[in-house]
Design a protein that fits this description.
The chain is α+β, with helices and mostly antiparallel strands and 333 residues long. The protein has 5 helices and 18 strands. The chain has 2 domains: 171 residues, Glutaredoxin; 150 residues, Sandwich (Jelly Rolls), CATH 2.60.120.
Length: 333
């Protein structure tokens, strides 16, 4: 964590819903050392940090340490409290207070521009250290111990030399040099698809598959509405094989942030190199039945689609089989 000028920690703003706790405030927490985790469940770097903050809470709560999570929204669906509760259940966050920062007011009060950000607040409610982006437990623990000792506590636990073992790391993979980039397909972030045609925002587009693909560009096939945050399918009787397609240059894990337009369960089929997945290639959120690999989209989140043991190059096709699918982002691990 990076040292910053000691300034009073801003009060939490705009948080009306809390999970795992009664409503909290910076004033209430004075006397405790606080690690504020500004996160969102659609950020893979935030997800990779969850095991670390759980471990810190487990080790140091007996010394007056408290992790607080402020969940803000990168996508509109992440303002939905039901989606946030589902994320807390999926990632087993049940002992850490989580404030639902629905309008990103606390996120902004702490000067954030991206996710995640961690702010270490001392027992006098002054900000002492900050850490932007993903890190290992070594980036946090020594600073936590230092600020606890300043508060008069004497932690006796050995410093961890490795990140804790957690399913999250296996499911989502780790970042490495040369990995394929995250690609958001909404027009607020993506200038154009790889297809050789101009897409009209917020209108139905019939998109032609060119048949060959440049690395790390997203292609569409079929009838889609290009929306601000994603691409929404428009199935028709004339189109039975629409798809979102990407050929990625290097990854062990492929994830898709996918939701539905009506809150009902949707379905996508998943292919790798024009074949359905084998049992060994199935991501956590993909099933295999009668030779077809598919995912049921029950809510909007980061679906783990495929896995390989080594960093490899593949072409992925996501084929909607219901007319309510919205595709937001490819993420790699």
């Amino acid at each position: 964590m990076d040292i910053v000028p000691a300034v009073p920690a801003p009060e939490f703003k705009g948080i009306r819903v809390w999970a795992n706790s009664k409503p909290l405030s910076i004033k209430d927490l004075k006397g405790r050392v606080v690690l504020l985790d500004c996160w969102t469940h659609t950020c893979i770097f935030c997800l990779r940090t969850i095991p670390i903050i759980k471990r810190l809470q487990e080790k140091y709560s007996k010394y007056g340490f408290q992790v607080i999570q402020a969940h803000s929204a990168e996508y509109e669906f992440a303002t939905n409290a039901q989606n946030v509760h589902k994320a807390l259940s999926r990632y087993k966050i049940n002992n850490i207070p989580v404030g639902f920062d629905t309008n990103n007011s606390t996120w902004e009060a702490y000067g954030n521009t991206y996710w995640p950000k961690h702010v270490l607040i001392d027992h006098d409610s002054f900000i002492r250290y900050e850490h932007a982006g993903y890190g290992s437990i070594q980036d946090f623990e020594s600073r936590v111990v230092e600020v606890l000792e300043e508060a008069g506590h004497k932690p006796t636990d050995d410093i961890d030399t490795l990140n804790p073992n957690d399913e999250i790391f296996d499911t989502y993979g780790m970042h490495f040099y040369g990995i394929a980039p995250e690609i958001c397909v909404g027009y607020s972030r993506l200038g154009k698809f790889g297809n050789n045609q101009t897409m009209k925002p917020d209108k139905p587009n019939i998109v032609i598959d060119p048949g060959s693909y440049t690395d790390n560009l997203v292609y569409l096939r079929g009838k889609w509405i290009w929306e601000r945050e994603g691409a929404k399918i428009r199935l028709s009787s004339k189109e039975n094989n629409p798809a979102v397609i990407i050929k990625y240059n290097s990854a062990r894990r492929v994830h898709g942030i996918i939701g539905t337009s009506d809150g009902k369960i949707g379905r996508i089929e998943v292919k790798m190199d024009d074949n359905y997945l084998t049992k060994e290639q199935l991501g956590k959120d993909v099933k295999l039945k009668d030779g077809i690999s598919f995912a049921d989209v029950e809510w909007s989140f980061m679906h783990n689609l495929t896995k390989t043991e080594k960093a490899e190059i593949h072409e992925i096709q996501l084929i909607p089989r219901s007319d309510n699918i919205i595709f937001y982002t490819f993420v790699f691990g």
